[in-house]
Amino acid sequence: MRKIRTLGTAACPPYHLAIVIGGTSAEFNLKTVKLASTKYLDGLPTTGSESGHAFRDLEWEEKILEMTQKMGIGAQFGGKYYCHDVRVIRLPRHGASCPIGLGVSCSADRQAFAKINKNGMFLERLETDPGKYIPDTLETDVSEEVVKVDLNQPMDQIRKQLSQYPIKTRVALSGPMIVARDIAHAKLKERLDSGHSLPDYLKNHPIYYAGPAKTPEGLASGSFGPTTAGRMDFIRRPFHGSWS
What we know:
The protein has helices spanning 2-5, 26-37, 58-68, 139-142, 155-162, 182-193, 200-204, 236-243; strands at residues 15-23, 55-56, 83-93, 100-105, 114-117, 120-123, 146-150, 170-174, 178-179, 207-208, 210-212, 224-226. By secondary structure, it is an alpha/beta fold.
């Protein structure tokens, strides 16, 4: 688990985690990590044999998934969701070495299969309506309490209100906020480094670490792509110093 922790959160959990044990070379091990993270090897046998073929270790997939849920550094309330799922592949190996590879596919899991042969190039047709897989979850199924926060209040009042509640509390935000991801924070850091102060609007409104997609006709906004806070952590101290 110590090694799994070193993966951190920069790749945007919940992850599709792949662990490969063994292999006749480190290179083959890492190739298998990539294939496992895309679910390409899901059809492998689930038990080994004297022939030394590759197989999925379902028992350890379940154990490792459960362990990641207790690390406290994943997505959502309380950090439970470090992984969507885990794949553990065992490979034949030389008696003198046992490479172990770790890899992830991010929560978005942007993977597509392709092949090139004498008949041409073929690319996997992807789902065009992924929303149909989202379960119909009622608000009452998620939490008994939702704290409403008016973002039109002065920032001091917003902070005072939020300070009353523990981590994991669900909140419903209403009002203006700033949307800024990696590049926006880097540009603001450049502004500070050049001797300028931060714009007042950054001091008066909360910042949402996300970027909206193109706004569909008739809607207020496109879908948002939130990212891990870890990408902005290095800017936190300079920002706080500017606000004080």
